[in-house]
Amino acid sequence: xxxxxxxxxxxxxxxxxxxxxxxxxxxxxxxxxxxxxxxxxxxxxxxxxxxxxxxxxxxxxxxxxxxxxxxxxxxxxxxxxxxxxxxxxxxxxxxxxxxxxxxxxxxxxxxxxxxxxxxxxxxxxxxxxxxxxxxxxx
Length: 138
Description:
Strand order of the largest sheet: 3-2-1-4-5
Shape: globular
EC number: 3.1.-.-
Pfam family, one: RuvX
CATH superfamily: YqgF/RNase H-like domain
InterPro entries: RNaseH-like_sf (IPR012337), YqgF (IPR005227), YqgF/RNaseH-like_dom (IPR006641), YqgF/RNaseH-like_dom_sf (IPR037027)
Function: Could be a nuclease involved in processing of the 5'-end of pre-16S rRNA.
Number of helices: 4
Organism: Alkalibacillus flavidus
Order of helices and strands: EEEHEHEHH
Radius of gyration: 14 Å
């Protein structure tokens, strides 16, 4: 069974999945969604969970630098609860401070154009969130 990693943004959700042995994370796609309607990604998430035989979901938890939980963190908490109830899988909130900035830095170092970075940044952030989780739980 594999672990799913999610970087939940306002308009998109970056998605990564682990290998079966939980060593590595790979980005698989970025979903467009309406954060006011979680059902907007229900079918797509169901397909991904079944296709990749997911046993756990890790949701990036964007805390403020002082450790407090802001508006984006609250959205992640609510979405994590929705996922847990809907798919009956364990969901872990994982501190994602600075992952989007780190993903941006990796893509800049790879000399990727602004347009291409925009297309893959959320997926790359999901990889970094999931890889961090996997490394910490090995």
